[in-house]
């Protein structure tokens, strides 16, 4: 196989019961120019042996186990860093779970969008939510296809984006790096996708290509435990929109990491838009309960 154009990063954590079926769906993709990097944050012989059995037939699988637990934020960052170190020329990256399933054309359809639409930085499909009591198809959720204005993109994203679905999309590596990958905040998936919206558009493929297992409802306390195994820092008890605002201000208004695409003033303006629209979203969700 030639140098892969796509790297899939799998942050594993205690799911040997589902891992084999997950790997079968990933390795059955009609598009073959990808590598799989697995970083195990709950190292076990079961997980290692399952990975080894597939790696014997598919050489572009890399597995490593953490000596100490990093937590979700640390492990998601590490799997991306390992992917970049091993395959620095691969232009596309996606996080994948150790328990979901993917249609055989998932990668082909997503790569096709990024190859043909240079303004798109993230593409993801419709999916089926596999719940303990039933399954349901999630139809068109959200995208910013055709929205050229970055202030409008981040405002719309802050108000309506379903980050938990989109974070498993296929991304341009350069945009993900510019956005800062995962940060030590609550709902880090939402934060990095908001930052990515400053660099390009999001596209949803109108076809079910992903089957997502849902075991837990959203729980902020559970996030703090999973993300920060050594104890949550004080600031993660602030509202999430304030945490995200702080990261955006630091990265793009103070450090100017948006250059050459946009300057510090634009970065500050977009951070303020994020804060206002995310606050409206939180208020709407709170009133709807």
Low-confidence stretches: none
Biggest β-sheet strands, sense, barrel? 9 strands, mixed
> What spatial form do the alpha-carbon principal axes imply?
globular
In total, the number of strands is 9
As a whole number of angstroms, the C-alpha radius of gyration is 18 Å
Number of helices: 11
Pattern of helices and strands: EHEHEHEEHEEHHEHHEHHH
Give the % helix. Answer: 40-55%
Mean pLDDT: 91
Specify the structural class.
alpha/beta
Q: Strand fraction band?
A: 15-25%
Number of domains: 2
Task: Describe the protein in words.
The longest helix has 25 residues, at 264-288. The chain has 2 domains: 1-99, Spore Coat Polysaccharide Biosynthesis Protein SpsA, Chain A (Alpha-Beta Complex), CATH 3.90.550.10; 100-289, no CATH class. Strands 1, 2, 3, 4, 5, 6, 7, 8 and 9 form a 9-stranded mixed sheet that branches. The mean pLDDT is 91. The protein is an alpha/beta fold. Helices cover 44% and strands 19% of the residues. It has helices at 16-26, 45-55, 71-86, 106-116, 150-160, 163-166, 173-179, 188-196, 220-227, 240-254, 264-288; strands at 6-12, 34-40, 61-65, 92-95, 101-102, 120-130, 135-138, 170-172, 201-213.
